[in-house]
Every structure is written in structure tokens, then in C-alpha cells.
Amino acid sequence: MTAPPSLADPLAAREHARAQGSIRVETMPILPPVADDLPAGVSGDDLLWEETVAPGGYATRRLPRGARLRLIDKAGDAAASVQIFNAEMPTERLNMADTVKVQWNAYLGPGKLLLSDMGRVLMSIVEDSAGTHDCFCGVSNAATNAARYGDGRNSGAHPNGRDRFLLGAAKHGLGRRDVHPAITLFKGTRIEADGTITPVVGPFAPGREVLLRAEMDVIIVIANCPHVLDPRPEYNSTPLRLTAWRGPVTPPDDPIRNATPEGLRAFLNVEDLYRR
User: Which is the most buried residue in 14, 96, 187, 192, by most CB within 10 A?
Assistant: First the structure.
């Protein structure tokens, strides 16, 4: 394809590129981060991240221990599939089997923990107005999206969750073998008496929120692609807003920390790590 005549000149191309710098769209990172709806007592100076992820897009960030991450399903059809790594040692990462097994619960909500494969709490669910999350199914891949939508390539119109995870992980020096089973927030599943899985994918009312708290320094990778069991023939995905800010490390008297013996042990494992 031949460039437009006005852009064939490198100087003209440079001016055209620089002119794009003032363009603002809904789905983009905001630099420096700005948000006018932070919780009471949170200063704008503590903002770490403000980004709206496009339908089919992905985002990733390293967050410090104590940080809060708020996810908002802006239009009711986002699917926030999440992978979490220990930022200092990424071989430690979210383990969905242990997250379910240790807590005796596969339907997570406020007060539940996202556990690593080393028995530590990576993040806690502090608040949740959605109530529909999936711990079972993982994410779509190129083959599943090709079968449902006719195309599943990263560069196509129907990108898949696994390849989005690969792009996000690569930004931290991680590769294919590091992509692990994920939790998907805002889209749920229900296990029936006969063992079949029923997707609970909406669409839902806009504005549902989940607030996570980082219990360790973490790398988080988020893909906003349709749930792998979404039965609708269309590629349904809507913008996902992410806001993160600094916060205090979880104190010894925190109710989530002390809610169960299993959870307390996972917090003690974290505290032992940071004591060294």
C-alpha cells in the first residue's frame, strides 16, 4: 500500500504522527493517572494506574503490596480474566485449584482470597458488587474463537484470552509456559447437579465493581475477551475500567486476614516472606 502523498515526506509523516498526541479516546491509559471518583480518604497523589481496556484488549501492571485495584464493568458485558504473579519471583503465581480447595468455595466474593501455588495470598477480594465470577473455565484460545466467531487471531477482530495473556506476560519477560489458569471476574458459571457447567454471562447492569487488595508485590495481567462459554454468536465485550492506588499493608486485626484458619495461615506465609 502506497502512503498518502502528504505522508510520503518523512517530515510530513512526523507532523502527522505528532498531531495524534492530543487525541483522547475512551479506551486508553491515562498518563499521569487522574480519577475524580476515588474512595473517601484516598489522595490523587496515591494513584498508580488509570486505564480503560477496550473490548478484546488487555492490560498489565506491577503493583506494590497494599495497593488497591478497582475494576469496573462500565457497560455490563466486560469479562476481566485475571492472572497474578509474585513480582519478585514470577514462578510463584495464581493457583485456581488451591484457591478453590483451601477456601472450600468455588464461588468467590467479598472476603475471599486469590492464592498462589506456594500457599500465600496474592490478592484479596475486598468489595464485590458483581457476584458473578468464574473459577473453572479459564479463557478462550485461538481455536475456540475461530470455531465460534470465524477468527481468533491477536491481529483479527476476535482476539482470544490466552493470546492476550501471552502479550501481557511478555512485557515482564515471561513466556508461554508462564500463562496459567485464570479467574474471570464479572462472568460466572454454575455447576449443576449432574456436573455440567452453565455459563452466567449476562449482559448485566452497567457499573458493577470489584475491589482487590495486593497482599504481595504482584504482576497482574488482565484480558477483556468474551467468556469461553459465552453462547452468543456475536463477539460481546465492553470496556473495562481499571484504577489502582497505594494503600496500607493489611494489618494484623484485618477481618479478611482472620476470617478462617486457612486464610490466616496464607497471610502468615506472606508475612514470613517479607520478614526475611
Answer: 187
pLDDT in tens, 187-205: 999 999 999 999 999 999 9
Give residue 66's domain range.
Answer: 46-275
Separation of alpha carbons 102 and 200, rounded Å:
24
Cis peptide before 55 (omega within 30 of 0): no
- Bridge partners, 212 (sequence order): 69, 125
> Do strands 197-200 and 113-115 pair parallel, antiparallel, or not at all (unpaired)?
unpaired
The pLDDT value recorded for residue 4 is: 57
> How many domains does the chain contain in total?
1
What is the pTM for the complete model shown? 0.93
Name the DSSP letter for residue 35: -
Task: Calculate the alpha carbon distances from 162 to 14, 71, 174 in Å.
Answer: 35, 20, 14
SS (HEC) of 148-161: HHCCCCCCCCCCCH
d(CA 117, CA 80): 21
Residue 141 lies in a domain: yes
Length of the chain (residues): 276
Alpha-carbon distance of 138 to 257, in angstroms, equals: 27
Residue 129: alpha-carbon gap to chain centroid: 16
